[in-house]
Amino acid sequence: MIWSNFIFVLLSSTLLWLLALVLYKKELLKRLFIILGITCIGAFIVFLWIKLERPPLRTLGETRLLYAFFLPVIGMITYMRWRYNWMLFYSLGLALLFLGINYIHPENYSKTLMPALQSPWFVPHVVVYIFAYAFLAASSLVAVRGLYQHYYKSLDRKVMLMADNLVYLGFAFLSLGLLFGALWAKEAWGHYWTWDPKETWAFITWLGYLIYIHRRYHMPNVFKSSLWILALAFVILLVCWFGVNYLPSAQFSVHTYS
Predict the structure, then answer these.
(1) 3-state secondary structure string across 140-190
(2) What is the C-alpha to C-alpha distance for residues 212 and 162, in angstroms, rounded to an integer?
(3) CA dist 23 → 19, 149, 212, 232, 256 (Å)
(4) Residue 258, Cβ neighbours under 10 Å: how many?
C-alpha cells in the first residue's frame, strides 16, 4: 500500500511540475501547479508518518523524501522574495531526481525506532538540516555558475549577491542543526559533543561555510577564491550527509541507526 501510494505521488507531482514548467509564463497557473505538487508529497509524508507510527526521517531514503518536499518550498520562497526563476526550476528538478532515486531504490519501511531516536529533538534536528542542505546546495550551484562566468565571461556581481543570500540562510539553519544535535546528544548519551565521525564532519561543514562568510566580509571584491571555497564546501557537505557512512570510522559511530 505504501509503495502504490508513493508511485501515485511520484506521477502526480511530476505531471503537475511539468505543467508548471510548460506554463512558466502564466504566473498564477505556475504557482498553483507547484503548490499542488508540494501538497501531494506533503500528504504522502503525513500518511507515511501515521502508517509507520513514527516520523519518516530515520533512513537515507526517508530524508530524500523530505528533501523532495522542502526543495520546492524553498524554491518558491526564494522565487517570491528575489525572483530567482532558475532557482524554482532547479528545486523542482532536484526534487524529482530524489523522488526518482527513491523509486529506483525503494525503501524497506519499518516501524521500529531505536531508543536514541525517540526524542523530541529528532524532528527539528533533521528538518533544519534538510532546510540547510537545500539552501547550501543551491548556493554551490550559483558558485559553479559564477566560476564559469569568471573564466569564460564577465562575472555578474548579482551572482555573488545571490550566493551570499543563499549561504546566509543555509548557514543559519546549519547552526540551528548543530545546536539541536548537541542538545539531543546530551539527552541521549549524556554529552553535548563526543567527536563522533558524523559530528566531526558536521563541524567541518559548518566551518567551511563560515570561512566563505568570513572571506566575503573581509574581501568583498575578491570573487574567484570565494567561489571556489563555496563550491568545495558543498563537497564537504556531501561527505557529512552520506559519505561519512562509508568511512571505516563510521562502523563505531553512534549515528549509525540502520
Answers:
(1) HHHHHHHHHHHHHCCCCHHHHHHHHHHHHHHHHHHHHHHHHHHHHHHHHHC
(2) 14
(3) 6, 29, 37, 35, 44
(4) 9
Contact 201, 257 (CB under 8 A): no
C-alpha cell recorded at residue 68 = 523532495
pLDDT score, position 254: 63
pLDDT at 157: 85
Distance CA 190, CA 182 (A): 10
In this predicted structure, the answer to whether residue 202 has a pLDDT above a threshold of 80 is yes
163-173: string of b/e by CB count within 10 Å (b at 16+)?
bbbbbebbbeb
Q: CA-CA distance, 8 to 188, in Å (whole number)?
A: 38
What is the C-alpha to C-alpha distance for residues 227 and 140, in angstroms, rounded to an integer?
8
pTM, entire model? 0.84
Q: What is the dihedral of CA 83, 13, 58, 201, to 10 degrees?
A: -30
99-128 pLDDT, tens digit per residue, is 888 888 887 777 677 776 778 888 898 889
For the cut 90, the answer to whether the pLDDT of residue 227 exceeds it is yes
CA distance 150 to 104: 38
Alpha-carbon span 145 to 240, nearest angstrom = 24
Q: What is the C-alpha separation between 32 and 36, in angstroms, rounded?
A: 6
- Please tell me what DSSP assigns to residue 255: T
Residue 172's pLDDT band (boundaries 50, 70, 90)? very high
Task: Summarize the confidence of residues 231-238 as an average pLDDT.
Answer: 94
Q: Please check the confidence at residue 194 and state whether its pLDDT lies above 60.
A: yes
